[in-house]
Amino acid sequence: MSISRRKFLIVGAVTAAAVALPPFISARASAANAARPIKEKVSFEVNGKQQSLDVDTRTTLLDALRENLQLTGTKKGCDHGQCGACTVIVDGRRLNSCLSLAVMHEGSKVTTIEGLGSPDQLHPMQAAFIKHDGYQCGYCTPGQICSAVAMLGEIRDGIPSHVSPTLTDQPQLIASEFQERMSGNICRCGAYSNIIDAISEVTEVSV
């Protein structure tokens, strides 16, 4: 029995739709499941205080600090780990909190700008930033200060940088080391020389 071209096209279209429909439905179902939040409990110490949160597993440490704990000193800048405004100190090391999930830090000790000092009792680095006008607009300052504090710890622990002469000798507390190690913290106001002056003063006081 012969079949007309018209019927052939109709049958072909119906068959193609029947074949294509299940994956389409499956894709929509998968997307719906992916969008459904999965919550998990995470406990860590923040600024010396134990915290326990139920968070979406996709929540960054930055958002957990800002939205769940209302510690808004830590800033959300580029949200891609490029500007350093979100820098906090985790277990003694600086970290871009926008690139790290909160649930990855079970049991960690987190220090934000609020935990370094208070208006009545400033951390030496905070006081030096004020003295040398290293903050200007102030948006990047919390990350700059947290980064500077942890960066000095890295030097004292003997961790080399790109400008360190060798990988084995103790790095020096000098401007070139500070500049290299702080290069991941961007200041849109261009207060870099003031920031280096502030870090240098803290170094001289604490050595």
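[next item in queue]
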Amino acid sequence: MLNKKFLWGGASAANQIEGGFEEDGRGLSNIDLLPYGDQRLAIAQGKMHYSEAKEDAYYPSHTGVDFYHHYKEDIQLMADLNVNAFRFSISWSRIFPTGLETSPNEEGLKFYDNLIDELLKYQIEPVVTISHFDVPKGLMDAFESWKSREMIAQFEKYARTLFNRYKGRVKYWISFNEINMLLHKPFTGAGIFIDDQKENRKQVIFQAAHYEMVASALATKALREIDPDAQLGAMLAAGDYYPYSANPEDVFVAQKANQENFFFLDVQSRGEYPRWALKQFEAENLSLDITADDLQILKENTCDFISFSYYSSRTSKADTSDVDTNTGNAAGGVVNPYLKRSEWGWMIDPLGLRIVMNSIWDRYQKPLMIVENGLGAKDTLTDTDVVHDDYRIAYLNTHLEMIKESMTEDGIPLMGFIMWSILDLVSSSSGEMSKRYGLIYVDKDNLGNGSYRRIKKDSFYWFKDYITENK
């Protein structure tokens, strides 16, 4: 099916798997302040300040699934799975505990040295995200996070530190995970709290987006100077918005939603702001700090490839008064009556993956990499340590068939399929462990109780065979 360089792997995020949140000099990050429970969404959306969380709140990122202490065992399991890539993120506050330091934390750098070396020992390619929903609390305190231009220099310092340290060992970098999550959950995405009584939400979000995109472009420039054989990609939470009907009003609403979702890739891939965005900034009196130097940096340092997550498509309707809007997805929209749904209400739409691959390729003509795709479900561990997850196998199989068709029939160049996830991990959206995505079961419950044992699911063996047959 695919060439020998095709990346088969699984993905993760430091704040969802690592744990060890105060070990070896690590500082606090934004997700360390995001509790499990009924306050999580309001804080994630930047509508409630994290300091208002309940005193007895449980913070699932503090333990993750203890990858910090299990990484050698987990990489051995990856080797058993026959993958040749592992996407992980680096914890910014493990390298610069407050973000403000001039010198990095050597213990943090050593952890990732060991992790990368262990992967390479098994011929597993590291695919590294620089910031996966990750901002040191020290930078939130000093600058209110990405509300401030000061963050650009702090991010560039951090990125250059990583590129210099891991030069020659990491070929694929991603600057910001799902950068468009800023539109929906600014605290999760960028450590931003917005006081809606005093601040214009759109002003804050698009200003932060600009600073992040300039920072990403400067990181791209730095990588080309430090390690020209490596590549840096943009990353989007993808999924086309369909019109609910042929009513032109529904079509137009979907078109506008797609424009907004692709806004970030327009800038990062084409190197300039789309006209509609500039017109919207003007119409809504958004006064953004965008300099001529910024625009030149964006133009000269576009991304090398486009990576994206895909879990489901979205559907738009002009009048939502008579339809179900509970999609379970941060991207919103309405329920699509033609699709089945996951246990968390997400639309299951394999063809939507082929559609979005065509949409992205048609717009940008840059190589693509799928870096997240999977199914969150409630798995049952039997008394004999078996998990029968045929539903996950069916989900992955149907999506992989669409990938084959996208590549063979549509001619779309795809660098790799990195699924979410090899290990069960803490859900980013809900903070649950019961919303399991892994091919490997981790014995931990929603409140952190459990042995943290790793147990292969049926899907593990299926995916291993699938990779072997298609390499």
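[queue empty]
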